[in-house]
Amino acid sequence: MSFLRHKSHTRQSLARDLHGAGVRAGDTLIVHSSLRKVGWIAGGAQELIRALQETLGSQGTLVMPTFTFSLAGWQLPPFDPCRTASRVGLLTDTFWRCANVWRSAHPTHSFAAWGRLATQIIDGPLNYEPLGLGSPIDRACNAGAKILLVGVEQNRNSTIHLAESRAAVPYLQIPFTIDDLYDEAWYVDAPSGEARMLAIREMPGSSEGFDVLDEVLVREEIATRCALGDALCTIMPAQRLCDFVVRLLKEDPLMFLNHENPSEITKRRRAIVESQLTMNRTSP
Ligand SMILES: CC(C)(COP(=O)(O)OP(=O)(O)OC[C@H]1O[C@@H](n2cnc3c(N)ncnc32)[C@H](O)[C@@H]1OP(=O)(O)O)[C@@H](O)C(=O)NCCC(=O)NCCS
User: Fold this and answer.
1) Are strands 146-150 and 231-237 parallel, antiparallel or unpaired?
2) Most buried one in 10, 34, 121, 191, CB count within 10 A?
């Protein structure tokens, strides 16, 4: 690790940065992060979590993704919320293990939450769309959450998947991978300890196309640039973001499939949607 010790950040300096970024006591805050971008933190991820909790205060709520993509077809073990490591960053994997943090049960896209609205955001039936209507991100958005992107850009912002779902874009049901292994996840059933299968109703899939929003959202004054330690960050209200993206998607439902270097997922989705549109036009 090549951090310079003299640039060390502390809980107090990070709390000051969070306040400067517009995080306030009582807020509900969704955080997506690259810890490395923050620079060296004395005490590590724990201290950043404490800085977030102290800034949000006793009436605030902190939410992070703890996605595990526990798919039987990907040879990953069944999801156990008390054991399975988060695959979306060290901060998130440290967070769900902290005291008084709740973790949702979804085997591909679980979330962890702490604070006043934690259980309201986390609890819910298991057969919801992972990042769509009725998911924790939907409930956090409805509760007036702000989103803080720490050292990452809009292509890591799960709330944009919620906007895809709210706008009912035509590719949500199109499988994530060529081999169709994305449609069945599995998890450890708490009372019995047995592995259970769960059909995935929507495929959040690739977010590579979300980067078209990086500058637009700042220009439209929906998102604001800020800093946390050494990391360039962006903060925005989730509901305003969602409403804005839904409006864009109503005008152009395929706008996120136009990436200049599309991945296999994006190419596949675009090809399938276009062939469906052609079939609809030619059928009598
Ligand atoms: C993939 C991703 C997590 C990688 O970011 P990263 O900064 O390289 O990795 P992490 O956040 O896991 O942090 C680990 C790094 O923290 C750093 N670290 C360790 N101790 C630290 C400390 N005390 N202070 C600061 N950083 C420290 C280390 O560099 C470590 O990396 P290393 O073990 O390879 O040296 C990030 O790019 C990303 O995409 N984040 C968002 C994920 C997300 O929310 N996805 C959902 C939406 S689709």
Assistant:
1) antiparallel
2) 121
47 falls within a domain: yes
Distance from C-alpha of 47 to C-alpha of 90, rounded to nearest angstrom: 13
CA angle, 223 as apex, 11 and 50 as ends, to 5°? 15
Q: Is 65 in the pocket of ligand 1 (CB under 6 A)?
A: yes
Give 11-46 pLDDT, tens digit per residue: 999 999 999 999 999 999 999 999 999 999 999 999
Does residue 197 lie within any of the structural domains?
no
- Quick one: how many helices (H) and strands (E) in the chain? 10, 9
Q: Could you tell me the residue range of the domain that residue 249 belongs to? A: 5-68+81-173+204-282
Residue type, 216: V
Q: Distance, CA 253 to ligand 1 centroid (Å)?
A: 32
Tell me how far the alpha carbon of residue 280 lies from the centroid of ligand 1, in angstroms.
45
DSSP line for 220-256: TTSSEEEEETTEEEEEEEHHHHHHHHHHHHHH-TTGG
Please state the domain count of the chain.
Answer: 1
- Domain-embedded: residue 27: yes
54 in Cβ contact with 33 (< 8 Å): no
Atom of ligand 1 nearest to the CA of 88: 42
Q: Which ligand 1 atom sits nearest the alpha carbon of residue 1?
A: 35
Q: Is residue 12 part of a domain?
A: yes
Residues in the chain: 284
Host H or E run for residue 62 = strand 61-65
